[in-house]
Design a protein that fits this description.
Elements: H1 2-9, H2 13-24, E1 32-34, E2 37-39, E3 41-45, E4 48-51, H3 52-70, H4 76-81, H5 84-105, H6 111-120, H7 133-143, H8 147-168, H9 175-186, E5 188-196, H10 210-219, E6 225-226, E7 229-237, H11 250-259, H12 261-264, E8 265-266, E9 269-276, H13 280-292, H14 297-303, H15 308-311, E10 312-316, H16 323-329, E11 336-343, E12 346-356, E13 359-360, H17 363-395, H18 400-406, E14 410-416, H19 428-436, E15 446-447, E16 453-462, E17 465-466, H20 469-501, E18 511-518, H21 528-534, E19 542-546, E20 551-560, H22 567-599, E21 602-605, H23 606-617, E22 627-630
Helix pairs in contact: 1-17, 3-5, 3-23, 5-8, 5-22, 9-22, 10-20, 11-17
Amino acid sequence: MLGSMRAKKTNKTVIWVILALLALGLIGFGGIGQGGGTIRSIGQVGEEKISTDIYAQALNRSLANLSQQMGRTVSATEAQAFGIQNDVLQGLLTTAALDNETTRLGVSIGDEAVQTQLLANSAFQGLDGSFDIESYEFALERSGWSPAEYDNILRKDAARALLQIAVVTGLKSQGTQTQALLEFDRENRDFVWAELTASMLDTPVAEPTDAQIQTQYEATPEAYTAPLTRDITYAWLTPEMLSDQVDIDEALVRESYDLQSDRFNKPEKRSLERIVFGSNEEATEARNLLDAGSVTFDTLLADRGLTSADVDLGEVEPGGVSATAADLVFATETTGVVGPVQSSLGPALFRINAILTADFTSFEDARAEITAELSGEAARRLVTDLVTDIDDLLAAGDSLETLATDTDMELGTLSFTASTADGIAAYENFRTIANQTNAGDFPEINDLADGGIFALRVDKVIDPALRPLNVVKDQVIADWKRAETLRMLTLKADNLKADLDAGAGFGSLEIHSETAARRTGYIEGTPPTLLGEVFTIDTGKTTIAAGASSVFIARLDQINSFDDSIAENQTLRDAVQQQLDSQIGNDLLTVFANALREEADVSINQTAINQINVQLTGGTNGGAGHNNGNM
């Protein structure tokens, strides 16, 4: 089979060689050519240029962050949809505008300040906390910066910070604003509620007449309208479909097991924090205070100006601390403070926050799991190896039906709507491509999240249309009964509401009590509108809210206002005040930066941006823009 496929692609070899050479011409962001020259900037604000490397690094970080959040590599289409490229560009233009302004104003810092920042960077420090030249050189080498370039970055960052501080210093939100926000958000209410169901009606809801059915049908046509539908034919190939073509050698399984000792042979660990003291006497004194209850571990941290993050060692194996400390720490079977004991940095107290027991999985127990993983990887490689051949067959004019005959791909059809999520439609990328494809579009190979591939053809697009009454009659009858039940229950609730407002009780209804309910809360078993309605009525009054098939009635018993005399609420008030101050500062900085951009001569090189976008996202540009145009 593959022989015939490769025969069809022979004439395309030259094309692929040419494409490969063109791709080589795009390698390296600093070497993007234009007109025989070298483009090193994707734009500038005033005199401040934005290098291609800076843009590429920022875009790469944003793509990596988004991929981490989604748990997979984002596609070019998704990156474009999220506006990643544009967000990165706008952020760099804003930074450039601020840097351009600091240069214009002559804001800068001296060599001594640069040196202070350099020495304070924890990334350049050794185990003893002092500056380590090897760490410094290694970090710069990985970032592709020279020492002079990094010094310049520090100067710009510091100068920009000075400018930002000058803009926002002294800004404070009004205390009345904080109070109003807290009074609205933290006000809570005590109330009781009951549910009225169809079983409580004096007369059951009767079957609707033909006229009532017709009225219901005509009143809500959207409920009986078939959605836009695409009749789709697709061919797909997943690693699972090729699993019978994969044979995993036992030696490879054993080798994989041996290489993953960290996974299958997890040693005992402790989650540790460590406070180091200057002498044994000082450490012993601190321990005595702890034992007497005079201080806590957190108090000792605060006295030294430290936080838990400063002393957190993470999850440590026995070899992660000194032998003496390990003997004590790993002999303890409970959490808490141990020591003092000699650590690699001196006398120390350790706080054990968690004990993680050893976890050993034998080769026999792990064999099936490893074999499945290796089989999956091998099958994914088989799919990848077939992509070019299948792509060539499509380009040569083969139909999806022919692909299913001549390759391992499987053929399928479905009527696809916005709610279809079964089978191949369970894959997000399939749904995305299906929604974007129209009848007559040429099928293309696309990826699936599990390493599979697919191509689809839209055979027909069926526009939304009202389905005939005889087809949806059962649904219409059910909808009428539900609406009639709610109408009759609402009448019953209205009568009960009048009695409750006059001081009567709930009678035989089962009531539920809610205490200190906030407007942003959730009450299980009730419609979302009920809580909102409770916050619109006065004490002693009642309100009604309809659910899907029942009606709810609630009586407000008490309004609990926000009390800022409570210490906890005072702390909350201070936190909200700080957040508002920060937000106001950020908003002002945004306005200030936008004003600088409007005043400065801003230009971008869309060609360079598009080329970097293609390299990093696999085929999408940054959107509309003018090459070397002003913004």
